[in-house]
């Protein structure tokens, strides 16, 4: 699928965490497999990893294990990360614990702020209890700036 998308110049958004409830294996090894075996099939198109490789919020520690793999590759300017981006939808939530904000901010700094497109695919319903795109953007910017302790 990645090879065909690359041939047709179609960007990809991938939800890497297959299931939380079924407890499928997920962590550093799956991050390495994605980076080394799947991503090279799409060297010319943007690939966005949704939810910072997790499944909502940043309390998902195994999602952070995957992000650590990506952060290391990006920090080393690995060619396969040239068009790799990371979405923060349903991750940058205002109610995350402070320690998770620090981890999220560190990961964003490690992969590079330029790899975080701001926007949301979440159905928030305006002021009906959802988290707005502006709220997410503000939260991430504050976290990266180190203003959230």
Structure characteristics:
single chain, 149 residues, mainly alpha, three-stranded parallel sheet, 5 helices, 3 strands, globular
What does this structure look like?
This protein is mainly alpha-helical. Helix 2 links the parallel strand 1 and strand 2. The protein has one domain. Helix 2 packs across helix 3 and helix 4 crosses helix 5. Helices cover 40% and strands 6% of the residues. It is built from five helices and three strands; from the N terminus they run αβαβαβαα. The model has no long low-confidence stretch (mean pLDDT 83). The radius of gyration is 15 Å and the shape is globular. A three-stranded parallel sheet has the order 1-2-3, with no helix packed on it.
Domain module count:
1
Shape: globular
- Backbone structural class: mainly alpha
Could you tell me how far the N terminus lies from the C terminus, measured between alpha carbons in angstroms?
Answer: 41 Å
Count of discrete alpha- or pi-helical segments spanning 4 or more residues: 5
Main beta sheet: 3 strands, parallel
Return Rg in Å. 15 Å
How do the helices and strands follow one another from N- to C-terminus?
Answer: HEHEHEHH
* Beta content: 5-15%
Q: What's the pLDDT, averaged over the residues?
A: 83
Q: Provide the spatial order of strands within the biggest beta sheet.
A: 1-2-3
- Share of helical residues: 25-40%
List low-pLDDT spans: none
Q: What is the β-strand count?
A: 3
